[in-house]
Amino acid sequence: MNNSNRSLALDEIHPRRSTEVSEIEQPTLAPADGGRAAWLMLASCCFIQIPVWGFATVFGVFQEYYSTHDVLQGSKNDLATVGTTSTGLLYLLSPVTFTLLTRYPHLQYYCAPAGLVITVIGSLLSSFSVQVWHLIATQGIMCAIGNGLLFSPSSLYLDQWFLRRKGLALGTMWAAKSIVGVALPFIASTCLNKFGSSTTLRAWTVVTLITTLMALPFMKPRIPISQSTSARRLDLSFLKQTTFWMLEIGNIIQSFGYFLPTTFLPSFSTTTVGLSQNTGTMLVSLFNATSIIGGIALGVLCDRFSVTNVMLLSSVGSALSVLLFWGMVSSPGSESSQTAIALLVIFSITYGFFAGGFSSTWSGVITQIKRDSSPSLDTGLIFGLLAGGRGIGNVISGPLSTVLLQSGSLGDSSGGGSTGYETQYGTLILFTGITAIFGAWSWMWRATALSTTMATDAALQDPLLSLRRAIASGNLPTPTTSSELSDQSTTDDLAKATHLYFAQPSPRTIALSTLTRFISASTKSPVDLRSILFAWQNKDVAIPEYIAKAQEFNEALKQQTKEGEKEESVQILIFLERLDLFTWLEGASDDSEHIKPLEGAAAAAEAAASAAGAAQADNAAGIAAGAIGGVTSVPSGAAGAAQPGTQLGRPQKQIDPRLQEIYNGERKIGDRNTVLRGIKPTDFSHVRKSAELFLDRNRSRPGQPSAKPGIKGSIPAPSAGLSMVPSRKSSSSHSRPDPIILISPSASSLIRMSNVKSFLEEGIFVPPDHPTLSGATDANLVKLERPLRLNGDASNPSAISSSRAGKPTRPTKFIVVDGTTNFKPEYWNRLVAVFTTGQTWQFKSYKWSSPPELFKHATGVYVGWRGEDVPAQVKGWGRGVETYAVERWDEKNGVHGGGRWRDREVVEGIWTAIEEGMRLRGWGTK
């Protein structure tokens, strides 16, 4: 049979890579996760941490100076409020600033300059402080507001520049904050002792101004900021997720005690342990130095492992550091000072590594929430709320620390014990350790919820039910190469995967080698989860193609198997097994003859039957035995016949014992409606096309004998005599070969192979260079399905619905390619539309290289941005080319951005034009 007249095969078309690459425009967005602009943005974001966090990281040195020098009037105990207010207010402003900048993007232009002005004024005014409340108002409030305005846009831009390496970027940013705290304590201590607090604060004002002015030129967004002043819609669906709130609770509790060691460590080392002032400054610097490594390390771990596990590591490590090292530091008179210094150094190193990098886990929190909610979720809102939660703990920890210090020691009330617990800092140390442990609250909640639910609910443990729930929700499980979900372990190759990650109802992974309750009739053995998922992924293919794919897949599995490991393979299911499996997975049926009931389900059913009454149970037994229609089952023998049967208090018809014996021996057969039912309409169009060619060839064969007189000739098939040439009329549009749509391979085209399917089939526009479409960029051919209205009024929306009322409308398959390599002459008769950007080199290899002639044979389509002028060249081609405009892409809101609802209207307009062109050229006519 001649294959040239069949539908366009996948291996017959390859994308045309034009030699006129110089004519193609470059993408407008700079590359993410790398490149000069991305690294400069990260560098400027790190540089901006100097004015933002500089004073907060060294305030412990200032507090020690103010405590030992009579510079400020007021209570010395209120000094701690300055540091906690400064840092806490900076964090608390984050939800407000991030929300405003996300809802009104144009404000991002003015945010950083305004923050610089406020910070400089507040820092300068703080140098004239004579009261403690003066310092609270200037450094604690004004500088915090200004620093928050500097911090918010830089963090938003960083999120745009780094997608796959988000954890690394965020960890590096927090590490830069720690770098600031390494050298600044020594510099601040030296300046305070030499010049005093006023001169030191004025010098800090100059440093703030210079460093910010150096960073601002490189702090640019990757996605152009919208000039519109109208408010954008915010996606707040993640606030309904329990996962977010459990992660936020752990973040808040951890922040209650996180800031206390750096605030009180200098004064603890000098007043309680009796060490020098330089030793206290060295301990703070050591904490910040190890925070650099910890921030980067925990950020990288969040890119690879579950965020709850990384939080557990951070929380346990920091809690043990506080309780074992800081709490056991000895006071003077009990042990040598060398032991106290050693314990404090170990504490600063370990606490700095584990607790100092806790904020780096926010990248994992953002990734987890977006995965469970929506990939297009605004990450700025999540980041702002996490920072705000940290600010809550920080602000509360200021006044709370005063109360903890006043409560005294945990041992001797005099506060002069031999360990840190028995000093005036004892209660504060214990509180810090406890809050550090509860930083892993999300892990505790997850472990408790999973253990409780999984232990009591067998349905949640079952792989088949988990897959069925995932299919029903439309959130299919993610194949991974390990039991932990991360960007590195996620894979699209089922042969390489070892586990499946299910996000709902509770995140968990199931090994693909797990045996299920589905029992194969051929092997009488359970089928593993990999075979079940493979069958589901190939549910739309015919049996021969499914078997061929399974054999290829088993070969790939064999290559993946290492020496000494057990060789795995997918089990091939027969037709009835696949049919039964698909029907059950789709929810069309709750019963399956191949799936065993869950353990305990049979006992539960028996108990329910007993509770319903013995009469109903007898009736069910009678029906199972074959006595249907109200006939009571009678035991073998005459004795059984003598006893009248009753059911629900009503007399029942008795049956002859001999006939009952026959019923008891009958074997229950399957209902033909169950066995023969289908899961989808079967498309035999390819068979009709092949049969048509075969019949045409037989008719035209020379020497073929004609029908004898008096003998009725054979009746041709319904598709016989139908021509594939568009100029001839056909009796059915389904006898036509699949129509072809050509799109432009230009990089400036908004519709390319990567996004054409989602655009034309679903009405969803995503830029072709978007990272979420990276897996579709290499496609050589795309197939679409569209129910056409060729025989009705295209302008009448009810045309399809009226046809569906009598008989379902079968979708027409379209083939989309971006080049004409290996195009056969007959394929040009199937061309129905050409997408163009106005560049004439696209048509050089076409049968009709002249645009006016080309658009006489196919509908021309131009898609551009809304608000941009249509190229003059496209306008010059006249009415043969229809022009359409889509809204500009908003990276933050994604497919939910403003105006995205118009995409479906645009797509409907395109299809209407294509259908009208097909109707005029003879498609669908009778």
Written overview of the protein:
This protein is mainly alpha-helical. The chain has three domains: 3-26 and 729-920, RNA polymerase II accessory factor, Cdc73 C-terminal domain (Rossmann fold), CATH 3.40.50; 36-224 and 238-446, Growth Hormone, Chain: A, CATH 1.20.1250; 458-558 and 572-585, no CATH class. Helices cover 51% and strands 6% of the residues. The chain has 33 helices and 13 strands. Strands 9-10-8-11-12-13 form a six-stranded mixed beta sheet, sandwiched between helices. α3 (59-68) packs antiparallel against α4 (79-103) and α4 packs parallel to α6 (132-161). The longest helix is centred in the N-terminal third of the chain and has 30 residues, at 132-161. The protein is flat and about 105 Å long. The chain starts with 35 loop residues before the first helix and ends in a 6-residue tail after the last helix. The model is unreliable at 1-27, 603-652, 703-734 and 792-808 (pLDDT under 50).
